[in-house]
């Protein structure tokens, strides 16, 4: 038989089964299971915690439903009709599967769990957090794996379906006439992990260091800059703020990641304007940092997830672990974010 025809027949049978089940009270099926087990209205009523009269009424409803007596009197008591005999085993198996499906899951134990989490995150987060996160996971949950995956075409759909477990997203804190990137679905859950500001990084023996020059706005716009731009196009936050002042800077190089930018700055005269939190990951012998010569917006790094996973124990464990790991990242003087949603 053609595979598509088989599939059509299968789907049709599923549809027909669902349509017939819509007219059946599941409590009746539970009662029928008890009656076929006990073969006694009295004992079935005791097992169900109802009166014998109520169980007798249920049996009458079952007989009408199946158009069959189901249980009849015999020499040694009640006996099953052939229809009831045919129903007994598959009904018991179906109810057992249903009970397992709706039962409270076993408590999540990270020490014995085996699963993989998929995270969408920017390169900055990977540099700052992933090494520590991986160490914690390896120590506390050796059977759990992590995967950093590309941004899907629809972030909301990816989080809702479970294709992605978490998304890490930067958000500007200061009011600005522009955004940092993807618009976030307001129905998603969010929690701020840490807040950050911007610093200007140069190599340790840059001319600025040798001459003891202050990084003024005039000097800043004369220097050559490196911009982290995953798409390789467009301007950055700094460029838009300079433009508002009638100024511009020269972007001599664009790279897709902060890790590449830091390595290049250490070996060149380029200036990198990047999150201040990167200072804890660079060697003073390789790079030094300066306060930017103009007010720049602060930002927060948040994690996003779909509401349907809020109470999922493994998901909650990962979110709590991320909060702990990012707790060591130096916060801005304005203090750490409140606990918020979990």
CATH class value of the largest domain = Alpha Beta
Largest sheet: 5 strands, mixed
What's the CATH superfamily of the largest domain, by name? Answer: Periplasmic binding protein-like II
Structural class: alpha/beta
* Termini separation: 51 Å
What is the mean pLDDT? 83
Number of domains: 3
| CATH architecture type of the largest domain | 3-Layer(aba) Sandwich
CATH topology (level 3) name of the largest domain: D-Maltodextrin-Binding Protein, domain 2
Total of helices: 12
From N to C, what is the helix and strand string? HHHHEEHEHEHEEEHHEHEHEEEH
Backbone CA Rg = 32 Å
Please bin the fraction of helical residues.
Answer: 40-55%
β-sheet strand percentage: 15-25%
Task: Kindly report the spatial arrangement of strands forming the biggest sheet.
Answer: 4-3-5-12-6
Describe the structure.
It is a single chain. The protein is of the alpha/beta class. The chain folds into 3 domains: 100 residues, Winged helix-like DNA-binding domain superfamily/Winged helix DNA-binding domain (Arc Repressor Mutant, subunit A); 109 residues, D-Maltodextrin-Binding Protein, domain 2 (3-Layer(aba) Sandwich), CATH 3.40.190; 93 residues, Periplasmic binding protein-like II (D-Maltodextrin-Binding Protein, domain 2, 3-Layer(aba) Sandwich), CATH 3.40.190. 41% of the residues lie in helices and 20% in strands. It contains 12 helices and 12 strands. The strands form 3 sheets. A 5-stranded mixed sheet has the order 4-3-5-12-6. Helix 2 crosses helix 4 and helix 2 packs across helix 5. The longest helix has 21 residues. The radius of gyration is 32 Å and the shape is rod-shaped. The N terminus is likely disordered.
């Amino acid at each position: 038989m053609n595979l598509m025809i088989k599939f059509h027949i299968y789907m049709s049978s599923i549809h027909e089964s669902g349509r017939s089940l819509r007219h059946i009270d599941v409590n009746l099926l539970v009662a029928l299971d008890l009656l076929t087990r006990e073969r006694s209205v009295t004992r079935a009523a005791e097992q169900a915690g109802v009166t014998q009269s109520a169980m007798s009424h249920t049996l009458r409803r079952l007989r009408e439903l199946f158009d069959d007596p189901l249980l009849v009197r015999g020499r040694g008591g009640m006996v099953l009709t052939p229809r009831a005999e045919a129903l007994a085993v598959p009904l018991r198996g179906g109810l057992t599967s249903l009970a397992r499906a709706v039962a409270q899951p076993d408590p999540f134990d990270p020490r014995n769990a085996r699963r993989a989490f998929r995270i969408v995150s920017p390169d900055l987060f990977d540099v700052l957090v992933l090494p520590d996160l991986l160490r914690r996971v390896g120590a506390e949950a050796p059977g759990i794996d992590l995967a950093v995956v590309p941004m899907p075409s629809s972030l909301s759909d990816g989080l809702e379906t479970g294709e992605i477990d978490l998304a890490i997203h930067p958000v500007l804190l200061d009011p600005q006439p522009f955004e940092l990137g993807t618009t976030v679905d307001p129905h998603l859950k969010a929690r701020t992990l840490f807040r950050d500001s911007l610093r200007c990084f140069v190599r340790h023996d840059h001319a600025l260091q040798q001459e003891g020059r202050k990084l003024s706005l005039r000097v800043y716009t004369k220097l050559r800059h490196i911009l982290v731009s995953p798409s390789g196009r467009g301007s950055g936050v700094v460029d838009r703020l300079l433009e508002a002042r009638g100024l511009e800077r020269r972007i001599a190089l664009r790279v897709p990641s902060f890790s590449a930018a830091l390595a290049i700055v250490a070996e060149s005269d380029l200036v990198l304007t990047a999150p201040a939190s990167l200072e804890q990951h660079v060697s003073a012998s390789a790079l030094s940092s300066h306060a930017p010569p103009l007010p720049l917006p602060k930002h927060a790094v948040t994690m996003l997830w779909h509401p349907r996973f809020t109470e999922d124990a493994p998901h909650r464990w990962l979110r709590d672990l991320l909060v702990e790991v990012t707790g060591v990242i130096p916060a801005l003087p304005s203090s750490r974010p409140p606990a918020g949603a979990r």
